[in-house]
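From the pipeline queue, job 12 of 40. The input is one protein chain; the requested action is below.

Action: predict structure.
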Amino acid sequence: FAGNLEIGRDLSWDELRAAVGLSSLAAFDAALALRRDYDERLRRFMDRECFGMFQSQGIRGPVRSNFQNLAFLVGGAQTAGLDRVIAGFKRRHIEARRYFYPPLHQLKLFAGRFSLPVTERVSAELICLPLYNSMSEEILARIESAAKEVYRSLR
């Protein structure tokens, strides 16, 4: 964006953020395509090699994902504990984290006001795995290997 930006002493942060945003948009389609490919690869692997332990959300109809996150419901997490699943990835140097945790209705402001058992079950089983714009073959293979090892340790 250097050719489109003249920096002077009156440059505001909003103008700088807008210039960075415009520059980022130029690479957006390519980044989204890469994230889609990584997402598809990892979902296929989970289905094929982990036999349903990691369940991804189905995306149907005209809905299209922006592939911001790679989330899975982990079958058996309520029994084994999601912390054990996350620790299994961590031992293999893969960051797995809880997603949508804690559920909003469990925050102090709303405590005891709502009964949302499905939300609580999903929250107890949902993790996110790494998904970003430029993932090497080595990183993708490490995620796959870690998932398979976590699967083996929990079945």
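Job complete. The mean pLDDT is 88.
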